[in-house]
UniProtKB/TrEMBL annotation:
This is Uncharacterized protein. It comes from the Bacteria.
C-alpha cells in the first residue's frame, strides 16, 4: 500500500527513530499539518496520493518497533481512506479535511 520510489529529501530530514506511539503520533500530526500545502502543490488527487505515500515511507522506516509501525501504518491508511472517500476530491476538500 505505502510502497513508492525514493521519499522526498524534506521528509528524510528527521531520521529520529519513532520508538513510542506518542512519538509516532507527534510525527503524524506534523504530516497532517502539511496536508494543505501538499494539496495546493498537487491539486490532482492521484498526484497528491503519490506524494502523500512518498511522505509516509520515511515515517514508517523510522518506526523501529513493530507495534509502533503497525499503529502508524493503520493511522496512515485511515487518512488515505478519508482522502479517497471525497466524491469530488478537489483541492479545497482535501485541504480542509484535517484543518
Amino acid at each position: 500500500m505505502l510502497d513508492c520510489p525514493e521519499p522526498p529529501a524534506a521528509a528524510m530530514a528527521d531520521a529520529t527513530p519513532l520508538r513510542t506511539v506518542e512519538a509516532a503520533a507527534a510525527a503524524l500530526e506534523t504530516l497532517r499539518a502539511r496536508l494543505p500545502a501538499l494539496v495546493q502543490a498537487h491539486p490532482d488527487l492521484n498526484d497528491f496520493l503519490a506524494v502523500f505515500r512518498a511522505e509516509c515511507v520515511p515515517l514508517l522506516q523510522r518506526a523501529d518497533d513493530p507495534a509502533v509501525r503497525a499503529w502508524l501504518q493503520s493511522e496512515l491508511e485511515l487518512i488515505l481512506t478519508e482522502l479517497r472517500a471525497w466524491p469530488a476530491a478537489d483541492a479545497w476538500a482535501l485541504a480542509t479535511l484535517h484543518a
